[in-house]
Amino acid sequence: MCLSPALQSGEDIVSHQLELQSILHGVHQRYAGRQGRYNKHDTARLRYIKNTAFPGLRFGKMAPTSENAVLAEGAAEAEDGAMLLVRMQCPASVDGHYWSELLVDAGALYVSLSDGGRGTDAEQPIYHAHPPGESSAQLLERLPAETTPGHLTPVWSNTQLEVGFAPDVDVEATLLLAAAVAGETPPRFEVELLGARDWVSQVQSDWAPVELAGCLRILFPWHADSAGEGSCGALPPALQLQPGMAFGTGEHATTQLCVRGVHSLLAGGRLTGCDAMLDFGSGSGVVSRANAVDNGMADRFVAVQPAEEAPEEYELVVANILARTLVQLQQPTLSSRVAAGGTLLLSGIWGEAQAAEVEAAFAPDFEGFERSWQDGWVVISARRRR
């Protein structure tokens, strides 16, 4: 269902505006001064705003009035482990992380931020990476700064928030309070009452095996490795991953593009005589170290830090990182690792502009650039000049 919060006492908000201004200003200033971290001690300020300006709001059992009646009735009968799932669009003038902190302090069980344009032409990739010589990650892609005092740049221009609350929380009152602290109009939101469920089993059932380029399957321990037919006939070999706090499950477009690129080179005979390749990138290294052992391939895999590696050349080098990082690593790190006539595969590149930038950076040492696309992402292949 979709709700637009009805202000129970709009006149009260106006009458308390001057009283709230100093509090809101202080919250905004402290937030902006810490570069995006919301002070947990501001919880007391939130309570003060609630008790002073909105004494009628209830933050416990949901008041069975207005649009909340149906949800309140369902919440009263909810099983242990049930949850209210709230979806809302973050106002464009406020940083999504700011709303996240406000809602957590107001009682949210969790808050998830995502790009409202994901999967469309309006998608806005935003990344962090470690520039050379920097110990902390820096934001590489960001929208133009907002000019509103005390407000930070939005994460996305269309940031979607998914928020979980206990089933007896008054969602309307909670969002009204958070909007007051942010100095914003209460947003429209959707609420769904989720019954108790075995989340582990559900995640496992929703996670299907991934087949890459008809030559490899990615499985988790709960997938049965039974005989059958794949997209190219008999099922290809399987690589089993153990679930954990890491990334790299084979589902992302850049991973699939790189695997297809390597498979195409093998099928075309361009890697004849190639007995070793270099996969440059800490993510793949972290994931691969453990899985090489789990899948009985530890003797075919070596993981090293760049500073420890001898300056060898390889017939094939694959780097799936970020466009700007690839440009920064062009010389001497990446180009010097590719043997004369060897192949370089580059991904982590989004859109035409980034693809052109990467190709321009590598053009002095490479030729025969080719691109393959998937969901807005691209893998670039090129040959090292002889």
Automatic annotation (TrEMBL):
InterPro entries xrefs: Ribosomal_L11_MeTrfase_PrmA (IPR050078), SAM-dependent_MTases_sf (IPR029063)
Signal peptide: none
Gene3D superfamilies in the record: Vaccinia Virus protein VP39 (3.40.50.150)
Keywords, in A-Z order: Methyltransferase, Transferase
Transmembrane regions listed in the UniProt entry: none
GO biological process: methylation
Domain of life: Eukaryota
Gene Ontology MF terms: protein-lysine N-methyltransferase activity
Family assignment from sequence similarity: Belongs to the methyltransferase superfamily. ETFBKMT family.
Name of the protein in question: ETFB lysine methyltransferase
Phylogenetic lineage: Eukaryota, Haptista, Haptophyta, Prymnesiophyceae, Isochrysidales
